[in-house]
Amino acid sequence: MRSTDKAHQELFNTWRAQARNKPWLTLCFIGSLILILLLVLITAYQGLHLDNFHYAISGGIAGFLATALGAFLIFFTRNTNLRTQDALLGFAAGMMLAASAFSLILPGIEAAEELFGQRLLAAALVVSGIGFGTLMMLGLDYFTPHQQASAALCGPECQRLAGIWLFVFAIALHNLPEGMAIGISFTHGDFKIGLPLTLAIAIQDIPEGFAVALALRSAGLSSNKAFLIGAATGLLEPLGAILGFAMSSSLAWAYPMSMGLAAGAMIFVVCHEVIPETHRNGNQGTATTGLMIGFALMMFLDTALG
Fold first, then answer.
1. Which residues lie below 8 Å from residue 91, measured CB to CB, with a gap of 6+?
2. Max Cα separation, the chain?
3. Environment class of residue 294 by beta-carbon count within 10 Å: exposed (0-12), middle (13-18) or buried (19+)?
4. In angstroms, rounded to a whole number, what is the distance separating the alpha carbons of residues 244 and 183?
5. Cα torsion through 91, 93, 99, 102, rounded to 10
6. What distance lies between CA 87 and its chain's CA centroid?
7. Are the CB atoms for 65 and 192 separated by under 8 Å?
8. How far apart are CA 286 and CA 273, in angstroms?
């Protein structure tokens, strides 16, 4: 028990030191979380309208099932080279970037323009949402453990294992804004926005779930454990869908701003986590090609379905 208390105290001291090192980031991160909390509380006070809620939760569950499907592929795969893994993750990154632009940012601006009747103000509202989403993910990234922290504590093999677990944690963490995006897109029950976005996120969740399970098995875990943990990383998607639906249902202007917030969070994850991971093994060309194919496919789906 004492060792647990000591570990908690060390973690708290680390967070406090980080907060002192970058007070501006700490304040902005707390501010973005307070904004999300206020929007959710306003919705709770007004009463959550459940007319389209089942669409949002269904979309979140679809994301989870797609992640589980990707992890399930580990049972049919013996070895997959790094080039293939990076191509699959690049493909997922491209779909996320296109979904952010065509299924969140542009519809968000259109929704805000209908609300205010002025395109400049509409764009400013969505841009502010992108800013809040970026600050939220910056804060989460800054206050969560990083591989460098374990470098002085163990040897190369331990550091490699820590890196794999941090990769798993990063995938699980970025499923939250994906789920939020799904929940936000179905706030008004608009299938032209929600359906292509959910489809894009579900498609790119498959290679992500597979990559997580493969990384875990390469670390020595059995296929069964790798599948269960890989599938579990998708559980944040239905939770994120509930959160996104609640926060965007509070006020009229919260809907377009929330779309910008989800887009900012997703773009941040792609640029800060997914793309660097695909370039780490020297397969930049393959990964970028996969990204462009994913971007083009999502743009086509959004145009055809939306």
1. 204, 207, 290, 291, 293, 294
2. 61
3. buried
4. 5
5. -90
6. 19
7. no
8. 17
Residue 113 tokens, joined? 């323009």
Residue 139: closest CA among 185, 162, 173: 173
Read off the pTM. Answer: 0.78
Nearest of 198, 263, 210 to residue 61 by alpha carbon: 198
Single-letter residue type at 5: D
Q: Which of 25-34, 278-287, 297-306 has the lowest mean pLDDT?
A: 297-306
Which two tokens mark 233? 């990383």
- Rounded distance, CA 133 to CA 70, Å? 27
In terms of C-beta density within 10 A (0-12 exposed, 13-18 middle, 19 or more buried), how is residue 185 classed?
Answer: buried
Q: Are 166 and 145 in contact (CB under 8 A)?
A: yes
The answer to whether 294 touches 90, Cβ cutoff 8 Å, is yes
| pLDDT per residue as tens digits for the range 110-156 | 989 988 888 999 999 999 999 988 988 888 777 765 544 343 334 44
DSSP state of 73: G
Question: Could you read off the pLDDT of 22-68 as tens digits, one per residue?
Answer: 788 888 888 888 888 888 888 777 766 677 888 999 999 999 999 99
Taking 3-state DSSP, the helix, strand and coil percentages for the chain, each rounded to the nearest 5, stand at: 85, 0, 15
**CA end-to-end span of the chain:** 55
Cα separation, 234 vs 247, whole angstroms: 21
Chain center to CA of 112: 24
Please tell me the distance from the alpha carbon of residue 126 to that of residue 147, in angstroms, as a whole number: 34
